[in-house]
Amino acid sequence: MYNEISQLPLVQQSRQGKVRDIYDLGETLLIVSTDRISAFDVVFPTLIPDKGKILNAISVYFFNATKDIVPNHFITANISEYPVELQPFGEYLEERSMLVKKTRVIPFEFIVRGYLSGSAWKEYKKSNTIGGMLIAEEMQESQKFPHPLFTPSTKAENGHDENISYREFMSRMDESLAVYIKDKSLELYSYAHDLLLKKGIILADTKFEFGTIGSEVLLIDELFTPDSSRLWSLEDYEMGKSPKSYDKQFIRDYLENSGWDKQSPPPPLPEEVIEQTRQKYLTILKIITGKEL
What we know:
The structure is a single chain. It contains 8 helices and 15 strands. By secondary structure, it is an alpha+beta fold. Strand 1 and strand 2 form a beta hairpin.
């Protein structure tokens, strides 16, 4: 199917990301969310059924909900509005694809952290810093920050992304653009955090990507999905512990205890891990959008 799409005259080039396949249609891109799963910057040989449809639905929901906060690249997820050349692939593309504006990607990931967890918790325990920023107060795992933190990282096509300080990020960017992205990232996080809290979900942290068309800055990629965000159950939240989550953390926790060295080829995931991950993703889809597949 991938090769068939890429052979269309309409498609100038295609690129396979960790979990999404991107097809260049000239002035637009076709983004297809697959059922692949990645963790620790590695793609696993096992698929999570329906995962791509879930990620696509959540991104579409939030791109529509946040377009007044910052413009984004989303055009449509309605197959009937796709170019005629893509119509023969409608059955495959249905519910797992979107047509978007083609931008010049800004080569960073922009992480906003509202709670101390994940790699930030590891860094804090080691050096009392987060994203290179010294944290004066004593904090516990999963503790909420007084104010959300903006912590950019480099975006690696291959290998591992690298966390950098805000000062270093500023040195690599136009200052006004850097400030704009920081402000919009924090505004997006606050909007989604408050919205999800009412639904019984804590948005602990999330990542954004941006691109440009001329002088216009657009939000791109995915938005508030369980692949790009840490989503906790408010009911189970307790400072000092890692709460029940509806995201990839379940996969990460399994891998941390599996004996895999994170260097050798990734192992296939057990059936029970696949199914539990799928159920977590289905649950968060229903909580966020009120809809099921």
